Amino acid sequence: MQKWQIELYSTPSWLLQTLLMVAAASAVILFFARNTRFGREFSYILRLCLTPKSTVKVLLLITAMITLLLTEVRLNVLSTFMSKGLYDSMQDLNASAFWMFAAMNAGVVLIRAFNNVVNDFLDQGLAIKWSERLNGVLTTRWLADKNYYRLQMRRHAPDNIDQRIQQDAQDFIASTIEFVRGMVNSVVTSLEFAVVLWGLAGILTVFGFDIPRGIVWFVFIFVILATFIAMWIGNPLIHYNYENEKLNGDYRYSLIRVRDHAESVAFYSGEKHEHDQLSDRFKAIIRNRWRIARQSVCLSGFNDMFTNGIKLFPIILQAPRLFAGQIKIGDIQQTVQAFARLQNALSFFRMFYNKFTAYRARLERLYGFLLSTEEKHTARQPDLTEVSDGLILENVALYRHNGEVLLDGININLKSGDSLLIRGPSGCGKTSLLRALAGLWPFGSSGKVSHPPHQDILFLPQRPYTAQGSLRDAICYPDIDKQHPELIEAMNTCRLGYLVDKLDKPDDWQHKLSPGELQRVAFVRALLSQPKVILLDEATAALDEPTEAMLYRALKQKLPDSIIISIGHRSTLDQFHDGSTHVGNIDCN
After folding, report:
1. How far apart are the two ends of the chain, measured CA to CA in Å?
2. Where are the domains of the chain?
3. Given a cut of 50, is residue 587 above it in pLDDT?
4. Homologous superfamily (CATH) for 3-374
5. pLDDT interval class at 110 (50, 70, 90)
6. Which of 181, 276, 307, 474 could form a disulfide with 509 if both were Cys (CB 3.0 to 4.6 A apart)?
7. How far apart are CA 361 and CA 300, in angstroms?
8. 492 CB-side CA count, 13 A
9. pLDDT tens digits for range 13-41
């Protein structure tokens, strides 16, 4: 049998053997890579995305993808033998052999096209499933244990978490699939075409020395040397790409701030200030992009020079053997193809290095965010006891982030139905005390606290939050029954009856409603959820005094057993509380 027949008939056994070798090599690489920084970060994210149920499905999908990838490599090898036969038949003027090899080349092209379509579909399927799982992990971690709140209070908190969850995760998945496919293809192609080129190579004479199979050694030495040079040139890009992600996230956040606070900016006529800030942030992006551009040009310039400069070498090195009658034109053609395939395979990491620097930055950003969500809340906490009703604070103290005392000696004892008004200069810690009662104070506290479970405590801030969706969704946030029988009655009580016909209309209600309307929405929530403790932080500051009085009376009448703790400055609030205290016994400065 001829060589092309041997290669063709041995394809099934080759696929099976190579698949097993790839599996074994992957296991060895993962075993040793786990002790590297890159390996630890990658395996950490991978473990989070795999469950016992999904692991088998993922392994089957990856096996199918690698099998198709190996099929593509094998088709490339067979293609070189078909091309050799095609050119040899033309040189020998053998028409029947020419048409046979032409038909086989066409068959290889069709099979390769079908193989690529299926492989591309599996790639996208894996990316979609992985994206679904990773997004679930990231959002769950972010929302768990109030991390979305605690992280922004830390001094070294991860920046632009929204960007990490949405953009970095998607880019990381796409780059991982591209990188793994490229690495497997590179290794297998290198081995296969090294064997093909080895069979075609002769003796290479360099400075009087004869080197057997010299063309094979030539391509390996030159490509490996070029790879190290490319890594040296491109190494600064890892830091530059990390900075690029951060700076773009900061710029996008500034744009969103202007959009979300458009009315305030307009009232202040703060366009010039906002423009200057946006300009400064964008200039930082441009400066970093110039650094990336300069380094990338050097890297791509070197890669292009090397890739194009090495193309003629296989012809030059094999030409003397052709002129000596040792090989045919088909052998030259096969040498050129095998040399090009081998050179491209060995150059994969060198060509991918620019993308790899950005990939490395995304991996670090995702790993850093996930790691931050695992950090335990180590700040000192008071002794907490959950009770069915009542609220007691015994000698409670709150501390700043640097350990200094913010509030000290707080003693409060309230029974069901009691109400307390807290007053004090701005910045003395009134809101901080409410945060501590809600379990949100991140910097440490001490003393003894007894209160009902957190789900029975409702916090009404000065500017309430509304969820996306319909007005019904906004009012019933977070878990009030959307078909609550007293919903419309509560809206009428809080003077929002004119919005009843818009309950199921989707809109941006956070911006559609006025500050006063938002505060009345918060009171509707209080009436519907019937909490045991209500914490009001200047919750009527945007309302006129008659409306304020009406809302407090509604709370007193409809929720007679609820404990009410209010922060406010108006003297009109006194009549709705059993007593008041002044947070002013410390130096507020």
Report:
1. 94
2. 3-374, 383-582
3. no
4. ABC transporter type 1, transmembrane domain (1.20.1560.10)
5. very high
6. 474
7. 19
8. 5
9. 888 988 898 888 888 888 887 788 888 88
Here the tokens at position 572 are 């009109």
> In 3-state terms, what secondary structure has residue 63?
helix
What are 12's two structure tokens? 């099934």
pLDDT of residue 263: 65
Mean pLDDT of 373-397: 82
| Coil, strand or helix at 395 | strand
Q: Which of 113, 106, 115, 124 is nearest to 69 (CA)?
A: 115
Q: Give helix 169-200 / helix 11-33 axis angle, nearest 10°.
A: 130
CB atoms inside a 10 Å sphere around CB 45: 19
Instruction: Tell me the range of 60-69, 84-93, 312-321 where mean pLDDT is highest.
Output: 60-69
The sign of the torsion formed by the CA atoms of 151, 152, 158, 160 equals positive
383-582 matches 3-374 in CATH topology? no
- As a whole number of angstroms, the distance between CA 260 and CA 510 comes to 10
For 582, list phi and psi in degrees, rounded to 5.
-115, 120
Residue 44 is given by DSSP the state H
What number does CATH give the domain 383-582?
3.40.50.300
CA–CA distance, 307 with 301 (Å, rounded to integer): 10
Average pLDDT value for the chain: 85
Distance between CA 33 and CA 195 in Å, rounded? 28
Q: Residue 190, CB half-sphere, CA atoms under 13 Å: how many?
A: 18
Q: How far is CA 263 from the centre of its chain?
A: 32
pTM over 0.70: yes
Residues 6+ away with beta carbon under 8 Å from 543: 516, 519, 520, 551
CA dist., res. 539 & res. 553, Å (int): 14
> How far is it, in rounded angstroms, from Cα 341 to Cα 185?
11
Check if the beta carbon of residue 163 is closer than 8 Å to that of residue 245. yes
The residue type of 502 is K
CA distance 529 to 373: 30
Give long-range contacts, CB 8 A cutoff, 24+ apart: 248-257. Answer: 248/163, 248/285, 249/159, 249/160, 249/162, 249/163, 250/159, 250/160, 250/281, 250/284, 251/278, 251/281, 251/282, 251/285, 252/160, 252/163, 253/160, 254/278, 254/281
Helix/strand/coil (H/E/C) assignment for every residue in 310-346: CCCHHHHHHHHHHHCCCCCHHHHHHHHHHHHHHHHHH
State pLDDT tens for residues 563-572. Answer: 999 988 888 8
- The DSSP output letter for 164 is I
